[in-house]
């Protein structure tokens, strides 16, 4: 039996959070054993609760980002509500917020204010564009930041740019907030002091734009949008098979091209044809390259195409939809699915991707109902049942 605790056992996180960026960051902390207390508005809570009803009546975004947390519903516009938040923060190791720019400071819940009052606290401000500059107060929803960061310009087809199908700006900010908290906690272990952590969605996603950004800055022009194809490698695309499936393959060097031509396409002359023999030539002749690959794979069933590609040592993948991923044999073989509790019953969820062999399995607690833990948390602060009832009558808590 393991004696190793989860890395963040004993760490308490308080979050005033909504949507994706902060909730996904704090869920990563919960995954590693932290106790996460989520402060929500009494009148509906985190607005991501209302995005959809796809998860058996709950919102899919909310389920994804919020299992394993405790929910307390508090009106932070009321001085009594702000006092509750401050008392929770006083006992916390980490505070995270992603309110609209300036809102946390008006409430006295910005990182600078809280860290001045609590030197050991790690306090994270997540914003769309940062605290200063001409965009500081600009609304920052995920799709808008994808556009500002240039992601949309390199995603899609030559004819039409498209946004990423996942909230890439939110996720980028969440993961930098997560790693920023871990770094600040390590620093606190040495210095004894926490400190502010600042994360912006624009700066996070701009960092993720590394290859196309550097290609454009140093090469003089941005890379072309190529759909599933690669801008500078060919063949690298999805091809339709005889049974209507699609197989994506990637040839990384000219040796692989020769193997593809000989063992998969059964056209060995293409391997040495000067129009195709090098990646530069194949990219210049992309239409003819793709036509040759597509014609050969179009005569094979999906499984036969995958088998041939793998036998030839060519990197390949099926073009799965989300239903396929839910039933993916690799995830099943590695036993990556669990159930988490929720107000509507158990829901299927993936084990977090950080695996710590030799330690306990991550707890993956339930998705909280709005205000599910309000009474218990107020009691932990020393509030009487009568005091809680009075706050509830006044709409300060729910």
Shape: elongated
Counted beta strands: 11
End-to-end Cα distance, whole Å, is 41 Å
Given helix and strand content, the structural type is alpha/beta
Spatial ordering of strands, largest sheet = 3-2-1-4-5-6
pLDDT under 50 segments (min length 5)? none
How would you sum up this structure, described in words?
By secondary structure, the protein is of the alpha/beta class. It is 39% helix and 14% strand. The protein is built from 17 helices and eleven strands. The strands form three sheets. Strands 3-2-1-4-5-6 form a six-stranded parallel beta sheet, sandwiched between helices. The protein starts with 11 loop residues before the first strand and ends in a 5-residue tail after the last helix.
List keywords for this structure.
398 residues; alpha/beta
Topology:
Elements: E1 12-16, H1 21-31, E2 35-40, H2 60-66, E3 69-73, H3 79-90, E4 94-97, H4 103-107, H5 111-117, E5 122-127, H6 142-148, H7 168-191, E6 195-200, H8 201-208, H9 210-219, E7 236-240, E8 246-250, H10 254-264, H11 279-284, H12 286-297, H13 302-311, E9 315-318, H14 322-326, H15 329-333, E10 337-340, E11 347-350, H16 374-380, H17 385-393
Parallel strand pairs: 1-2, 1-4, 2-3, 4-5, 5-6
Antiparallel strand pairs: 7-8, 8-9, 10-11
């Amino acid at each position: 039996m393991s004696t190793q605790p989860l890395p963040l056992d004993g760490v308490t996180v308080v979050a005033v959070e909504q949507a994706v960026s902060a909730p996904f960051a704090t869920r990563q902390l919960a995954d590693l054993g932290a106790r996460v207390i989520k402060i929500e508005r009494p009148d509906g809570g985190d607005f991501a609760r209302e995005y959809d009803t796809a998860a058996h009546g709950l919102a899919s975004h909310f389920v994804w980002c919020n299992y394993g947390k405790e929910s307390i519903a508090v009106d932070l516009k009321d001085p009594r509500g702000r006092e509750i938040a401050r008392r929770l923060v006083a006992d916390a190791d980490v505070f995270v917020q992603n309110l609209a720019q300036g809102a946390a400071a008006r409430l006295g819940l910005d990182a600078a204010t809280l860290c001045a009052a609590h030197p050991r606290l790690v306090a994270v401000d997540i914003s769309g564009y940062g605290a200063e500059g001409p965009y500081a107060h600009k609304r920052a929803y995920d799709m808008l930041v994808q556009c500002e960061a240039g992601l949309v310009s390199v995603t899609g087809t030559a004819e039409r740019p498209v946004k990423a199908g996942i909230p890439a700006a939110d996720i980028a900010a969440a993961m930098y907030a997560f790693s920023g908290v871990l770094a600040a906690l390590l620093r606190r272990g040495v210095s004894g002091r926490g400190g502010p952590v600042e994360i912006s969605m624009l700066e996070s996603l701009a960092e993720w734009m590394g290859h196309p950004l550097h290609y454009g800055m140093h090469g003089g022009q941005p890379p072309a949008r190529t759909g599933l194809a690669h801008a500078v490698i060919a063949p690298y695309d999805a091809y339709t098979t005889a049974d209507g499936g699609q197989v994506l393959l990637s040839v990384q060097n000219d040796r692989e091209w020769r193997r593809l031509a000989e063992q998969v396409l059964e056209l060995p002359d293409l391997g040495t044809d000067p129009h195709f023999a090098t990646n530069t030539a194949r990219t210049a002749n992309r239409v003819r390259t793709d036509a040759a690959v597509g014609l050969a794979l179009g005569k094979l069933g999906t499984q036969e195409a995958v088998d041939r590609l793998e036998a030839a040592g060519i990197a390949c993948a099926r073009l799965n939809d989300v239903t396929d991923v839910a039933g993916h044999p690799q995830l099943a073989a590695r036993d990556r699915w669990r159930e988490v509790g929720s107000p509507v019953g158990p829901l299927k969820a993936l084990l977090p991707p950080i695996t710590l062999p030799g330690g306990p399995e991550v707890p993956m607690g339930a998705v909280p109902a709005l205000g599910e833990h309000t009474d218990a948390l107020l009691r932990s602060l020393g509030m009487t049942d009568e005091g809680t009832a009075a706050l509830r009558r006044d709409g300060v808590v729910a």
